[in-house]
Amino acid sequence: MSNPYEELSEKLFFSKEAAEYLGISTQRLNKLVQDGKLQPLKRSSSATIFHIDELNKRRKELAIFTTISQEGGKGMFRIDTRVKQEALNFSTLMNVLNRTEHSLEPDFDEFAKVHDVTAPMSSSDIVDRYSQTFGVEKWRLLGAYEKAKAAFQTLRETDEIIKRGSNDYPPLLMQTEQAPRFLYIRGRISLLFEKRTVALVGSRQASSKACDNTTRLAKILGENGITVISGLAKGIDVAGHSSALKYGFNTIAVIGTNLNQYYPRENESVQREIEKRGLVVSQFSPANKTERWFFPLRNGVMSGLSLATVIMEAGETSGALKQADFALKQGRQILIPESALNLPNVTWPRRYVERGAQVVHNSAEILKALSQSHIFKVENEPVQQTMADYLRDQEKGKYEQGSLFDWFDPVTVGE
Fold first, then answer.
1. In 3D, which of 286, 251, 287, 288 has the Cα closest to residue 271?
2. Which residues form the Smf/DprA SLOG domain (predicted)?
3. What phi and psi, each to the nearest 5 degrees, are found at residue 180?
């Protein structure tokens, strides 16, 4: 006999599930509801419920917009939130003043104490204030603003901009000094909140053996519910991403360009696949001209999103070592395969071991090290109630928040 609760629950979604179904953030979902573009079936203090028919209607609209955008249409990305507008203003100032985010941010924050930085810079009274404060002619500001705005409008309609300190900002990254003011997001935004994340990094000219080991390790990590993070570079990075995609596991790419660039070109197909099935993260606005020093900066973000970094293979000048430095500053775990210690003319592994990195001999030891560092442990996490249970409790009038518990997941070791 069919269960009416189970049948009905398949057509209903909580807010988080609805956002994932649409491929957007919960912040954007709430904005759609506020704007009347999406109608929930029910809203209460306990839950907001959406019906699948309403979601499918909106999903179809999003698909149309995405298709138009991918065919070259412009203007589909809407600067329709305060965060997006602030990001555009900030990026404009970075360009016209030729300053980095780090150097501009203190002055921008001081300006924000007196003026509304979420208002369009194009309005006459606003641009006057920017001009007077930052010592730039109005015509230069307006020209830079329109150029930056055009660049922002090349983003896809479903892309997101997240500001540091907001509820959508990844908690792990928020704990670090390297957390950028803005993150530009394309793909499954829910992956930003994954509690099990490990970065696989290494040389762009890695040996075939190191790439094979990376492919194998990414699969094992995925089998244990761990999201693989890397930087979409040649060699180790793309091996890790490709393996996660091949076996259907989560992967996050932290890139050193803006979202609209595909670098290196030979990894474009992998990046596009991650956009569909994983998540691509950039700290650089589409109005920024890509610089060589962007790439080591992104290592700080990549490490910040990860609980641990595994350096599969690297030379003495590899960017992977920059990530290891960030990981040490951030108090994150560093794992080094024993094979790296035996590489000729390489001294970095011993230096990092002396600073706290851990040597591992095989995938089993990697998983054991991750388990000891509590990457598998979740503390005080609310029990996830199913929609069917919710419907039963609603009928009984006894809906309560889930209890709290501690648990350890079993560790699956593949060899």
1. 251
2. 161-370
3. -70, 160
In this structure, which amino acid lies at residue 310?
Answer: V
> Dihedral of CA 334/337/341/343: which sign?
negative
Identify the pLDDT of residue 65: 42
The domains located in the chain, with CATH, are 82-152 (no CATH), 160-372 (3.40.50.450)
**How many Å apart are CA 164 and CA 156, to the nearest integer?**
21
First to last CA, the chain: 44
Alpha-carbon span 241 to 214, nearest angstrom: 9
Where does the pLDDT of residue 24 fall: very low under 50, low under 70, confident under 90, or very high at 90 and above?
confident
pLDDT in tens, 224-239: 999 999 999 999 999 9
Q: State residue 286 phi and psi, 5-degree precision.
A: -65, -15
The beta-strand segments (E) located in 109-152 are none
Q: What is the pTM of this model?
A: 0.74
Q: What angle do CA 250, 231, 103 make, to 5 degrees?
A: 120
| Cis? peptide before 171, omega within 30° of 0 | no
Q: Cite the DSSP H helix spans in 71-175.
A: 82-97, 101-112, 124-134, 138-152, 171-174
Cα distance between residue 170 and residue 183, in whole Å: 10
